[in-house]
Amino acid sequence: MKYQQPTNLKELYNSIKILPLALMAGLCMISGILLFLKQGEEVSSDSNGLFVILVALLAAGGFILGSFIFRKQIAESMGKTMIEKLVIYRQAMIIRFALLEGPGLFSIVLFFFTGNYLYMVITGAMVLFMMLNKPTDDLIAEHLMLTEQDKQELKKMQAS
Description:
By secondary structure, the chain is an all-alpha fold. It has helices at about 10-35, 50-75, 80-115, 120-130, 135-145, 150-160.
């Protein structure tokens, strides 16, 4: 089955708004479930230095690499039509958020095996960064350097 690119701006706009929320919700739900399962167990202060460093490096790498790829892909959208810009923006955003979600998921798994809440703090930091960078109309317009006409079209999509 071949994937069809959206041809409707409203559909594309909605997917840009919903996808980050779904990724954040997934991390939060898994965290909540594992916190519930670990409830009442002894809190581990055993911080295996190797895994803590590995998770911190993965988180930092995901942040840096995600931001780099995002900026690079957004730069390629200049001079394209509105729908092409939004498709590129959505792709760049998915990659950026996936590179944050990966270390968050790894951190959650390590929390489950070790009981060390430091891993949950790292996951929380990943979710916080995702929240701070979720696409808003202003952020989309700023990243894509939209014209006033394009901004008005975005506002129409939001209103309908």
